[in-house]
C-alpha cells in the first residue's frame, strides 16, 4: 500500500461525509428525526474512517508537498490554511453535537450545530479540494 491509496480513501470518506451531512440537514428540515439521526451517525462513522486513513498516512508515509507555483500555490494555501485550522475543531464539535442529541438535550444540540455543521461541511469539502490539488492537479 502506498500513500495514494490512503489519500484516495480519505478523500472518498470526505466526499461521502459531505453528502451525508447535507442529506442529514435536509432530513431534519423535513422533520424526519429518525432519518436525520441515521444520516448524521453515518457521517460521524465515515468521518472516523477518514481520520484513521488520514492518520495512518501521516504515520506511515512522508507528507506529500504541493508542487504548484505562482498563483495556484497561493490558491492552494488559501484553501489549506482555514481547512487545517477548522479541521482541528471538527471532531470535538461533531462528537459533542452527537452526544447532546443522543442524551436528548436537543436545544443545546441545535445551538451547537448552528456553527458546528457548517464547519464540518467546510472541512469535508475543502478536504476533497486539497486532495485534488495534491493528487490530481497537473503541475
Instruction: Give the domain tally.
Output: 1
What's the level 1 CATH class?
A: Mainly Alpha
CATH architecture identity: Up-down Bundle
Elements, N to C (H/E): HHHH
Helix vs. strand class: mainly alpha
Helix content: over 70%
In total, how many beta strands? 0
Determine the CATH topology.
Four Helix Bundle (Hemerythrin (Met), subunit A)
| Share in β-strands | under 5%
Write down the overall mean pLDDT: 96
Sketch the major β-sheet: none
Question: Brief description of this entry?
Answer:
With 139 residues, the protein is an all-alpha fold. It has 4 helices and no strands.
Describe this protein's structure.
The protein has helices spanning 3-29, 33-60, 71-102, 106-135. It is mainly α. The protein has a single domain (3-135), classed as Four Helix Bundle (Hemerythrin (Met), subunit A), CATH 1.20.120.
Offer a few descriptive terms:
elongated, mainly alpha, Four Helix Bundle (Hemerythrin (Met), subunit A), 139 residues
List the helices and strands and how they pair.
Elements: H1 3-29, H2 33-60, H3 71-102, H4 106-135
Amino acid at each position: 500500500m502506498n500513500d495514494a491509496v490512503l489519500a484516495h480513501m480519505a478523500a472518498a470518506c470526505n466526499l461521502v461525509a459531505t453528502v451525508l451531512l447535507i442529506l442529514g440537514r435536509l432530513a431534519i428540515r423535513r422533520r424526519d428525526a429518525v432519518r436525520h439521526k441515521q444520516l448524521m451517525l453515518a457521517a460521524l462513522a465515515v468521518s472516523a474512517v477518514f481520520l484513521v486513513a488520514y492518520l495512518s498516512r501521516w504515520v506511515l508515509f512522508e507528507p506529500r508537498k504541493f508542487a504548484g507555483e505562482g498563483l495556484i500555490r497561493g490558491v492552494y494555501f488559501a484553501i489549506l490554511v482555514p481547512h487545517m485550522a477548522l479541521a482541528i475543531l471538527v471532531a470535538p464539535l461533531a462528537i459533542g453535537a452527537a452526544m447532546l442529541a443522543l442524551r436528548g438535550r436537543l436545544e443545546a444540540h441545535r445551538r451547537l450545530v448552528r456553527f458546528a455543521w457548517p464547519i464540518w461541511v467546510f472541512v469535508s469539502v475543502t478536504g476533497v479540494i486539497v486532495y485534488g490539488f495534491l493528487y490530481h492537479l497537473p503541475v
